[in-house]
Amino acid sequence: MRIGIIGAGKIGSTLAHLFVDAGHDVAVANSRGPDTLRDLESDLGEHGHAATVEEAARYGEIVVVTIPFGHYRDVPADDLAGKTVIDTANYYPELDGHLAELDEGRTTSSELMQQHLGDAHVVKAFNAMRFDHLREFGREGGANHRYGIPVAGDDPAAKRQVFDLVEQIGYEPVDAGRLADGRKFQPRTAVYTADLWAGDLRERIGIDAA
Ligand SMILES: NC(=O)c1ccc[n+]([C@@H]2O[C@H](COP(=O)([O-])OP(=O)(O)OC[C@H]3O[C@@H](n4cnc5c(N)ncnc54)[C@H](OP(=O)(O)O)[C@@H]3O)[C@@H](O)[C@H]2O)c1
Questions:
Q1: What residue owns the CA closest to ligand 1's atom 30?
Q2: What proportions of the chain, in percent to the nearest 5, are helix, strand and coil?
Q3: Contacts of 120 (CB under 8 A, 6+ apart)
Q4: Which residue of 57, 60, 145, 179 has the lowest C-beta tally within 10 Å?
Q5: For residue 63, with 0-12 CB atoms within 10 Å meaning exposed, 13-18 middle and 19 or more buried, which class applies?
Q6: What pLDDT, in 10s, does the model give residues 11-35?
Q7: How much is the pTM?
């Protein structure tokens, strides 16, 4: 599958490697342009290339947005219409600037991303594990004992696509519900960066298996 990745930092570059290792083709973009991503491009080999943000958005059958949340309005909505978009963002007010609707718990960062993207199908995933753990922990455990990755979204077909990707990189997807339920695994929750086995994560999030 072709996967676009907008954001080439700690999470973006980690996912790029994991997806290429799982047999996918990736286009990776940052804010400064593809010429600043030649080292990453060369590390990824023939199945990865650097791109502009718009190129990565158009390239991906699925597109990952993995940039600091405060910049979410820069993501090109038109290029993502109808696509599954994986949102890894976490709202850190000290970095992103305070938003009253988030500070007061009236909505979530992923729902704001969904509002901005309109016709895309936003799925929240890969936000709750540190990048260096994400890089390694998929290799641990066996078929019946894997780390869990919580996944939330409103579109069932988009969620299933993300479940598949989560599995392909060695984790067990844990269905956390609708996009609004992303609040169950955002910063300042018990499961955030807790690195739980899937069964424990499912129990702590308080929902049934996917
Ligand atoms: N670090 C973690 O362990 C971790 C874990 C889970 C989730 N997250 C979340 O995932 C997101 C990314 O985190 P990160 O740690 O990977 O960040 P990071 O290392 O700081 O990288 C951010 C990336 O986003 C790019 N970027 C920034 N603004 C952009 C824009 N307007 N358009 C396109 N690209 C833009 C940056 O490009 P330039 O360098 O060219 O500006 C950079 O490649 C954040 O929301 C974070 O909260 C992080």
A1: 31
A2: 45, 20, 35
A3: 63, 77, 80, 81, 82, 83, 84, 85, 114
A4: 145
A5: buried
A6: 999 999 999 999 999 999 999 999 9
A7: 0.97
